[in-house]
Design goal:
By secondary structure, this protein is α+β, with helices and mostly antiparallel strands. It has 2 helices and 9 strands; from the N terminus they run ααβββββββββ. Strands 1-3-4-5-6-7-8-9 form an 8-stranded antiparallel β-barrel. 11% of the residues are buried.
């Protein structure tokens, strides 16, 4: 009985201990994984899949190891051709699962990294109308 109580106490101690390095490790892992070029593959508005055209699927994010980024947003114009809607450049930082990017104009925005691995990047932002999620596939490191 004494051994059972010791075992339970040991397990409770293990479960109650937290690793202070978890958020640091996650941030470091995200900073490594995010480097590269990412192409838009899916978009969701309040978890409902939005149909993307050929042009929208040409939208890309590029993150480098110097914490600089570039974003090219492509859309289908009224003539049915692909056009660049916007090109954004600036710097970025990651803290835990929050990606903060600062545009060259000085504007600052934040998005939640909801998934990041070697092949997929999922970013979610909350709006007054709900959530908007963009999913990107890594096309180069």
């Amino acid at each position: 009985m004494k051994n059972l109580i010791l075992a339970i106490t040991f397990l409770l101690c293990l479960c109650s201990c937290s690793n202070d390095d978890d958020s640091t490790n996650q941030t470091s892992n995200f900073e490594t994984l995010i480097v590269g070029e990412w192409q838009l593959i899916e978009s969701y508005d309040n978890e409902e899949l939005i149909s993307l055209g050929e042009c929208e699927l040409m939208t890309t994010f590029n993150f480098d190891s110097n914490n600089e980024f570039g974003f090219v947003d492509v859309f289908t114009n009224t003539n049915g051709n692909c056009s660049v809607f916007s090109i954004l450049i600036g710097t970025y930082a990651i803290s835990e699962s929050i990606l903060t990017y600062t545009l060259s104009s000085g504007d600052i925005s934040q998005v939640q990294i909801t998934q990041l691995n070697t092949t997929l990047l999922e970013l979610t932002v909350s709006t007054d109308d709900g959530t908007l999620t963009k999913v990107y596939s890594k096309i180069s490191s």
